[in-house]
Amino acid sequence: MGNRRPGPALLEVVVPARNEAGRLPAGLDLLSGRLAALPARAEVIVVDNASTDATAEIVRSWRGPVPVRLLTCDRPGKGAAVRTGLLATRAPYIGFMDADMATDLAALDDALVLLREGRTVVVGSRRHEASVVEGYALPVRRLGAITFNRIVRDLVGGIQDTQCGFKFFAGPLGRAAARDLRTTGFSFDVELLAHCVRRGAPVTAIPVVWRDRPGSTFSVRRHSLQCLIDLARIRARVSGPLVPAPAPASEPVLGPLPALPDRGLPSASSAGQG
Questions:
Q1: Pfam families this protein is in (predicted)?
Q2: Which CATH number characterizes residue 70's domain?
């Protein structure tokens, strides 16, 4: 089923990619196939983040069931790449995913339904009680992730997993938060969510099926100090007065989306807990 229908996209998905020539073809194949099955137009934006391999060539030559376009971000850092991609979007709903597609793409259906119900920030959480997590890193890294998320929970609306590479937003809010984003390293997710929260937007955490993929460049030993420095800077940036959230964009007229599966998704009263 193709999704190259005319008209504006309802959903744009950003994929940051630095030297991802090995994993990107399989990731794009999975993502394009899932987006093509949605009852609305969707597009992919791959942001080549100063790659030195064939990442850009793979995207330029890609042919699939949904449009995939290439952007270039010469400033190294996943945060810089995600910011570039989100600011290039125009759709009512936007988000980003990791190139390795470690988060099962079935969660896309859940996220889109929740966004259309009025949730403005929907994130995957590996610590949600209904999530299935396979092969989650080394014990020291797992402990570090738990400690990290406890430190930042007050900034991000109380969710328990800020670092899962699966986050979606109402378009105006996501673009406003991205404009304020300054962190380029691994802590950028915290700042992006904090800019949403300071605009009064609750964060809804949903369960995911997540499988660890080889190839992560994060190192507890090499990056922990910089993460702590970044967190101190983020707290300073988001300590100002509350900024009203942007008004939601008008939504294209579409056919009905599939019913939301019963997979332990939070009710409106539990938004913000993951």
A1: Glycos_transf_2
A2: 3.90.550.10
